[in-house]
Amino acid sequence: MEKSGKIENTVYQHSIDINDLIIKKESIQTALGYKAGSAPDYVIKEIDHAFSEFNSINDIRGGFRIVYENPLSLKENGFYLSDVFFHTGAIIASNLTESDCVAFFLVTAGEVISKKVKEYNQSHNYMRAYIYDTVGSEIAECACDFIQSMIEKKVKTSGFSITNRYSPGYCGWDVREQHKLFSFFPDNFCHITLTKSALMIPIKSVSGIIGFGKKAVKRNYGCALCTMTSCYKRRKSG
Q1: Exposure winner among 83, 139, 155, 184, fewest CB in 10 A?
Q2: How many CB atoms lie within 10 A of CB 134?
Q3: What's the pTM value of the predicted model, to 2 decimals?
């Protein structure tokens, strides 16, 4: 897809096999608030049960759009892409300063995992529902890792490096800006829809951006500057 060292402004969409994702039981324990290996036996048993049903989770999807032809116009609190201003906030904007372009991405763990959570809640098996909800979040994040790796490989062929990924709702970026992000994708991309209130359906879905350029670098997430205590990045780095 590369021409004269440039990457085409193309949308890529993929069905992701759960066996291609690196999902660790220790990460689930950490997300549940336990130190790795310290969860009680009944929690470990529920995690094992969820993992035993992984083959039924067959609707994980992810995709991205590399926007190369419209260079970024970086500002202190965001950036312009064409005539659209993304008000990301200063934390994200500062981490894009050496990026020439961006890639937008969308990922979903699918409806199957959400249906399982609903079914277990309806049958009053709240512990299992909670475990599955946590597992669904981890699947979505691991799918983001998968798509990020694909983006990195794609731009690397043209001599570019990437930043970390950033999503609306984190680091001061208003979640309502997802409407701007979704405008760069076809309707129902990866079978994900967005409500007027910026809620993604299926629930276990993630949107975001990754900067790239000749001098782009991955920096540590600025958790020390952020007040969002529920952030998954804070949990993982804490």
Answers
A1: 83
A2: 21
A3: 0.88
Kindly give the confidence (pLDDT) of every residue in the chain, 238 residues in length, as a single tens digit, with 9 standing for 90 and above. Answer: 333 344 456 789 999 999 999 999 999 999 999 998 899 999 999 999 999 999 999 999 999 999 876 567 889 999 998 789 999 999 999 999 999 999 999 999 999 999 999 999 999 999 999 999 999 999 999 999 999 999 999 999 989 999 999 999 998 999 999 999 999 999 999 999 999 999 999 999 999 999 999 999 887 755 444 555 555 554 454 4
**Overall domain count for the chain:** 1
Domain with residue 209: its CATH number is: 3.40.109.40
